[in-house]
Amino acid sequence: MLIDLSEVLSEPHKPLDVTAACTMRTFQGDAGTYPVMPETDAHIAAEYKGGGKLLISGTCRLKVLIPCDRCLTEVPEEFDLEFTKHIKVSESEDDSGQAEDYDEANYIDGYHLDVDKLLYNEILIGWPMKVLCCEDCKGMCSVCGQNLNEGTCDCEDPGLDPRMSVIRDVFKNFKEV
Questions:
Q1: Angle of CA points 71, 123, 28, to nearest 5°
Q2: Where are the alpha helices (DSSP H) in 65-134?
Q3: Which domain covers residue 159, as residue numbers?
Q4: How far is the C-alpha of 58 from the C-alpha of 43, rounded, in Å?
Q5: A Pfam family for this UniProt protein (predicted)?
Q6: Other beta carbons less than 10 A from residue 17's beta carbon
Q7: Mean pLDDT estimate for the chain
């Protein structure tokens, strides 16, 4: 969804306070595409701070279905997004020597704010390193692919690597009784 920022960026610089529907239905990441379930609409506030600077803040809550890293069962991961962005929308002459930190504004195109792109960036920042369906997830059988949380399989346990049999024999021979 696009929000028009023309009233914020032009005189008399009216602040903007909008509730926008989250239209993002999928999240495209490096590892694949994940379904998105918005729980609340995005609340966006924008305010002109002078000198070509813009302050954008907002909140949104949504869930992304991410596969478990062990058994591939989809897990609803909740993202409670709260953000504040300091953006420089235009260069002014008096900032020539200052080095200030501003957020990247790839979600602003001219006088329009792309809410989905902004939320995409926030999800990307908060993406979990590891997702598990439960703490004691057993994973999948490496032979047949059976989800071991749902039941056992009849596959033969591959056991130890045969190249390690020499070391196993050494430990067996020197075992204390």
A1: 65
A2: 115-125
A3: 138-177
A4: 5
A5: YceD
A6: 11
A7: 85
